[in-house]
Task: inverse folding
């Protein structure tokens, strides 16, 4: 089984993002970037499938600027065999549909049996790319996966849904998006980081692919959320109930 896993370069989850003075976007100058946490879980699961003998090759793919190579190197250090960067210019805004179209072209070329993605990116929280990719490819999909069990020609996926857990079985090839509880990614060691530098990383200029990457949505303005008010101490439960009912209007 050949596994294609998709990764995205995002602002590190420990960084507090800043909005530009004019509200037109985020100030990313000198900001630490890293692999999207949900995508890191997807890479880890792909590598585990290979270690179990269920997968023969793991290909990591990213769409974005040249610096996305660093994100792909992280995926290679985790255990991916090779990487592919669909490079865009710095002024190109990639939205989920455009990413799904780019990934479809890679899937058509590579013919993987399983496509793994994180359920969403922590920068835009769209939670759309995996579903759009499955629709473009006309493939079965399972989102919010917390468990994956490969079977001959099929894959069993445990999904996290509102009512608990749901188990589905998909015929391969298929698209699966990883949830937080699918696994805990391994610590990347220095020897593996050094090995990753020698693994193949191919780059393709998206300008030569003939794919429409124009954004469908326009961000008008970004603003910080209003500051949270200070808490209030109450002497007893009765006062708390009256406060919630009369002032907060929550009961």
Result:
């Amino acid at each position: 089984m050949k596994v294609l896993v998709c990764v995205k370069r995002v602002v590190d989850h420990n960084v507090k993002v800043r909005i530009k003075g004019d509200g037109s976007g985020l100030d990313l100058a000198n900001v630490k970037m890293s692999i999207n946490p949900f995508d890191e879980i997807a890479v880890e699961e792909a590598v585990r499938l290979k270690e179990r003998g269920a997968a023969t090759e793991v290909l990591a793919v990213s769409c974005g600027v040249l610096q996305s190579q660093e994100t792909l190197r992280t995926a290679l250090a985790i255990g991916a065999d090779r990487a592919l960067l669909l490079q865009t210019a710095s002024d190109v805004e990639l939205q989920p549909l455009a990413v799904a179209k780019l990934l479809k072209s890679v899937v058509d070329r590579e013919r993987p049996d399983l496509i793994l993605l994180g359920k969403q990116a922590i920068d835009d929280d769209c939670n759309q790319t995996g579903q759009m990719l499955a629709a473009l490819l006309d493939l079965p999909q399972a989102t919010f996966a917390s468990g994956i069990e490969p079977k001959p020609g099929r894959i069993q996926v445990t999904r996290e849904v509102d009512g608990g857990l749901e188990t589905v079985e998909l015929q391969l090839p298929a698209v699966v998006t990883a949830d937080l509880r699918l696994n805990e990614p391994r610590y990347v060691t220095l020897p593996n980081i050094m090995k990753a530098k020698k693994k193949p990383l191919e780059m393709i200029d998206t300008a030569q692919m003939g794919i429409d990457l124009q954004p469908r949505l326009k961000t008008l303005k970004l603003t910080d959320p209003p500051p949270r008010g200070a808490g209030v101490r109450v002497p007893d439960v009765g006062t708390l109930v009256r406060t919630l009912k009369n002032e907060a209007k929550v009961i």
